[in-house]
Amino acid sequence: MPKEQRKKTLDLFTIGDLIDKAIVFLATNNTITTLSLQKAIFLYLYSYAVTNGYDFNNVLRMASFEPYRFGPFSDAVVGQAETLVGYGKIRSGGSGEKQIFGTIDKGLEKLNLSKDEKRLLTNIKKLVETLEPMELTFYIYFNPLIDQSLRDYFTSKSEIKDSLLKRKDTYVRDLLKKGAIDEETAELMIYGNNQDTIN
Predict the structure, then answer these.
(1) CB 142, CB 54: distance < 8 Å
(2) Can you tell me the distance from the alpha carbon of 29 to that of 190, in angstroms, rounded to the nearest whole number?
(3) Residues paired with 91 in a beta bridge
(4) In which region does residue 106 sit, left (phi positive, over 0), alpha (psi from -120 to 50) or beta (all else)?
(5) Of residues 192, 104, 93, 78, the one with CA closest to residue 142
């Protein structure tokens, strides 16, 4: 994990609650693949930590995120999703990376989201609904708004980073067309980071 930040921390129960609420929110009136769910929860916890002044390294560690074949991955997120399926809060189909989660429950008010939580989750859900899973993955791998050392760490075991880099121009163009990034972010993704090169 990147070097520790000296910021306030969250406890494990609060992080578990954030993950549960995020999974239900993201799956409500929608379906979401395991890959997109992993990336969305990663992005949500990172954004939540940064917005509220928490140590994002500690938050992601406590949520069990690790570098994996497709970037940031957490067994805890899979476990929480399966638990929510067991409780009937969401439904699932398929398996592995092709597993999808969804619900037709319209009772989002039962989640008791704070204003910050709702704003962040609404933005992330819009992103998930707009982008294909690999586009969302690219967005996290190369987004200059996400801490560089964090991106480097979580893509260190990636099996797809080189292929994403080879298609960087296409991905950036698609993200721009879909309104997921602005022109300045697009320029930074393409030209602004010399560390993101193919080995």
Answers:
(1) no
(2) 34
(3) 102
(4) alpha
(5) 192
